[in-house]
Design goal:
single chain, 202 residues, alpha/beta, Nucleotidyltransferase, domain 5, seven-stranded mixed sheet, 36% helix, globular
Length: 202
């Protein structure tokens, strides 16, 4: 079992963190840039699932990210809000570029035969009881190590540690220890199983 976690950047000129995580929770992290690099890495490792920190779906009733008349929140976003988890709506500022890139990458990966799930490392860190990277990068690394992840190097960037969190959520997904938030017909966010969420799948 191999999971690929991606902390996707909104544009290809900014770093995307990646984490390759195996069944023993041994992690390899680094930075990538273009979609081509991401696809090459994915094909090299052939992960069981690709867990992407980026919106991969539009709200139902919204024809495009530029459609200002459509809804701003998806059902999964509303579920996060009900659970008290902070997030940025996909229609806000730079999130639009991230959403467009995430949706495009998901389509390309699925055409290659990979399963792709949307995850939210910041929210997962809240649920798992470890600090978000913006609050304490070292605290996040140590928190991931307490969960069992091995091989996280000192000095790893926030992009790498968020990718490691994404990969860990993908690992929980493959083990069936997850919550699927939202409406399946619209798109789901996969999160660690928690009493915060009233509806749990898996």
């Amino acid at each position: 079992m191999v999971v690929l976690g991606l902390d996707l950047a909104g544009v290809e000129t900014r770093p995307t963190g990646f984490c390759i995580l195996d069944a023993e929770l041994s992690a390899e992290t680094g930075l990538l840039y273009g979609d081509g690099e991401i696809l090459t890495l994915t094909l090299r490792h052939r992960p069981s699932v690709v867990a992407v920190d980026a919106p991969l779906y539009l709200p139902r009733g919204r024809s495009s990210i530029e459609d200002r008349s459509g809804p701003h929140l998806r059902e999964c976003d509303k579920a996060l809000r009900r659970a008290g988890i902070r997030f940025l709506p996909i229609t806000l500022g730079a999130m639009r570029k991230l959403t467009v890139r995430g949706m495009r990458l998901k389509e390309r990966l699925e055409k290659l035969g990979f399963e792709v799930i949307e995850v939210y490392p910041g929210g997962a860190q809240d649920v798992l009881g470890i600090p978000r990277g913006k609050r304490s990068l070292e605290g996040l690394r140590r928190g991931l190590e307490r969960l069992g992840l091995r091989g996280l190097r000192e000095g790893a960037t926030v992009h790498e540690l968020d990718a490691a969190t994404a990969a860990y959520v993908g690992y929980l997904y493959l083990k069936g220890e997850y919550a699927a938030l939202g409406d399946e017909s619209e798109g789901l966010i996969i999160m660690p199983r928690s009493e915060r969420f009233s509806s749990i799948h898996g």
